[in-house]
Amino acid sequence: MFSSGSFHHNRRLSRLVIAAAPALVLLLSGCKRETAEEAPPPRPVRVTVVEKAGLGQSIVLTGQIQAEKEVTLAFRIGGRIIERSVDAGDKVTPDEVVARLDPQNELNALRSARAALSAAEGRLEQDSNTFDRQQTLLRQGWTTQANFEQAQQTMRSAQAAVDDAEAQVEIAEDRVAYTELKAGVIGTITRRAVESGEVVQAGQPVFIVARDSGWDAVFDVPAQVLRTAPPDADVIIALTDDPSVTAKGRVRQVDPQADPVTRTFKVRVAVNDPPPAMRLGATVSGRMDVDHGHGVSIPASALTASGNSPAVWVVDPASMTVALKPVEVLRYDPGTVVLSGGLEGGEIVVTAGVQALHPGQKVRLLGARS
User: Fold this and answer.
1) How is 303-337 classified by DSSP, letter by letter?
2) Nearest partner of 302 among 272, 269, 324, 280, judged by Cα
């Protein structure tokens, strides 16, 4: 049997235990929350394994086939066109007459010049006879030195008049010849600027002829492409409506000044041995492969920033934590970023969830793509 004092002591102890129980429960639950906050669960992230490879790039532009050299045909004199014998697309040869002017005025001028020459030649013959007589009389002493010198001067003037008349005849003959416009080159008519019956001025363009000496593929190239493209790169030229028709070419000329509207530079690529289907004026595409050496290409979503510099989150496979690593960007392509430094290949890079990470944070990989 328990004594009365022992009973009361046990009763007081029970009351103390019951009173302290709620505080003990709160203390234990607080410890559990503190432990949970200190060890949060790993954050799930999507990653990719980067690989170092060649950074080759294909540049494709659209242009047009044009002649390497074009000649503008024009009359040397003005007049009314009475005949046009060729049109755009026609082949021409050097001696072929492509247009004629009304020659009536020039023929009249030629007849007048020839008549003036005949008159001058008649005066020269008469003055030459007079000079010969004066020369004979002077030797015989039947005339004066003054008369002889006057006859000599008259004959010289008549000779000069004949020379001038002959030159006028040549000029008139040339003007008659100028009423016929000849091609002067082997090539193809690319543009016709006048019609029969029109009155043209001297030097006014009548036809544009593309010489058959060579063809160019002409492109409007942005300045960024010019900076990255090597000067001696091969260009593959292909017809846009039939890509199987191709030819090789090399850059022949780059305009020194950009177009004020498009801000592009006109580049002429000499086409080597163009196939028959690649005609003048055809629309073509030019492809050039540019080698930028070796580097790393990553998804654009993997790129973040460390201060003012680009960076990526790299996962340590041993501790499964992330670290921010600065990188050097070579160029931005659609959907990807090409790096020239910062990664060596083989690193695990976070591609989704980069904005919610902090250095040393534990992560759980959702999937690795290589």
Assistant:
1) -EEETTEEEEEEEETTTTEEEEEE-EEEEEETTEE
2) 324
Pairing of strands 180-182, 283-299: unpaired
Buried (b) or exposed (e) across 352-363, using 16+ Cβ within 10 A? bbbeebeeebeb
Give the span between the Cα atoms of 83 and 96, in whole angstroms: 13
The sign of the torsion formed by the CA atoms of 307, 308, 313, 319 equals negative
- Would you say 298 and 336 are in contact if contact means Cβ atoms under 8 Å apart? yes
Read off the pLDDT of residues 296-346 as tens digits, 9 standing for 90 and up. Answer: 777 888 888 777 888 888 888 888 888 888 888 877 776 777 777 777 777
124-153 in b/e form (b: 16+ CB < 10 A) is beebeebbeebeeebeeeebeeeebeebee
The CA distance from 60 to 246, in Å, is: 14
For 121-168, the pLDDT digits (tens) are 999 999 999 999 999 999 999 999 999 999 999 999 999 999 999 999
